[in-house]
Specification:
By secondary structure, the chain is mainly α. 58% of the residues lie in helices and 6% in strands. It comes from Streptomyces venezuelae.
């Protein structure tokens, strides 16, 4: 019997960027209010997708980002600053990953030695 190919629904389930969560459910999951999610959206930290009816929908990735901002706000950081910190942390993580990838490559001209 050939292995089953994942269904389209399974692909969506595994997709970190699939907008699966309503605003109410997303707020509940990260321990915040819908107003907090609107605020991080207004600060352009995350941009929820909209359903056909115009309702905001959030992905797991967006919820992780919003949860990190909520942690900072809970520690007393103003929301705008918290959003900027999260963006900078994300950029630093990307830069460190790229730096590590470049360091692990052989130096130019040494691959034939």
């Amino acid at each position: 019997m050939p292995p089953e190919t994942p269904s389209r629904d399974q692909d969506r389930f595994d997709d970190e960027d699939f907008p699966a969560y309503t605003m109410g459910r997303a707020a509940e999951m990260i321990g915040a209010t819908p107003g907090f999610l609107r605020a991080v959206g207004e600060a352009r930290l995350i941009t929820p997708l909209r359903s056909e009816g115009g309702h905001r929908r959030y992905s797991r990735y967006q919820l992780r980002v919003a949860a990190r901002a909520r942690e900072l706000v809970d520690q007393g950081t103003p929301i705008e600053a918290a959003c900027r910190i999260v963006v900078l942390e994300d950029q630093l993580e990307d830069a460190l990953r790229i730096n590590e990838e470049l360091r692990s490559r052989p130096a130019a001209g040494t691959e034939y030695l």
